[in-house]
Design brief:
- The radius of gyration is 29 Å and the shape is elongated.
- Helices cover 18% and strands 30% of the residues.
- The strands form 2 sheets. Strands 1, 2, 3, 4, 9, 10, 11 and 12 form an 8-stranded antiparallel sheet that branches. A 4-stranded antiparallel sheet has the order 7-6-5-8, with no helix packed on it.
- It is of the alpha+beta class.
- The protein has a single domain, classed as Umud Fragment, subunit A.
Length: 195
């Protein structure tokens, strides 16, 4: 039994392959394809960074021990378009005194809440915050308040309470100044964390 070609049938030649009209422009076409791909990627990256997320870097010590100087973060800019900041969220915001600058702080109280600080503890609506993550040496023992947060505003503080410029100094922050929620610390990799 043979599985090879049947020698009794004549071999039929294949029709010639038509010349690709774009073949002559191969290198130019390839460059144009790359340019289109890079342009699309740049456009998508711009849209994502404008409306959905942003990469940021911590400058300073005001959020220690939660965030350290030069930590790299991913900020979710979309979340506050569909919901409001919540107590405990770490947010990136425009500094109310100089909106050219961006700060990272923690939301302590929302509109309508009463804030008071005394003996190193923060009270919101008369209840002490659960802030055991703040070491004793980072607590501020200056008294503050009571103060009611106005409508449309948020009271923010750094976790390094005695080394932070925050709402105790420059007042509550309007919601329109809150850029987004810190979602991820990705650098340094050994301290990567989702918030």
């Amino acid at each position: 039994m043979s599985f090879g070609p049947d020698s009794s049938q004549p071999e039929i030649p294949l029709p010639p392959t038509p010349q690709d009209p774009h073949r002559a422009f191969g290198p130019v076409r390839e460059i144009l394809d790359w340019a289109r791909t890079l342009t699309s990627a740049g456009l998508y990256a711009t849209l994502i960074l404008t409306f959905i997320g942003q990469v940021a870097r911590v400058d300073g010590l005001s959020m220690e021990p939660t965030l350290a100087d030069h930590d790299r973060l991913v900020v979710n800019k979309w979340i506050y378009r569909v919901s409001d900041p919540r107590q405990g969220d770490i947010v990136m915001l425009y500094y109310p005194v100089d909106p050219e600058k961006l700060f990272v702080k923690r939301v302590i109280a929302r509109e309508g809440d009463e804030v008071r600080i005394g003996s190193g503890k923060v009270y919101v609506n008369g209840l002490a915050l659960d802030d055991e993550f703040v070491p004793a040496e980072y607590r501020s023992f200056d008294d503050f308040g009571p103060q009611v947060v106005p409508q449309g505003y948020y009271f923010v503080m750094g976790d390094h309470r005695n080394g932070s410029s925050d709402s105790r100094h420059w007042g509550p922050v309007p919601k329109k100044y809150i850029v987004g929620k810190v979602q991820l610390r990705w650098w340094p990799p050994s301290h990567a964390r989702v918030f």
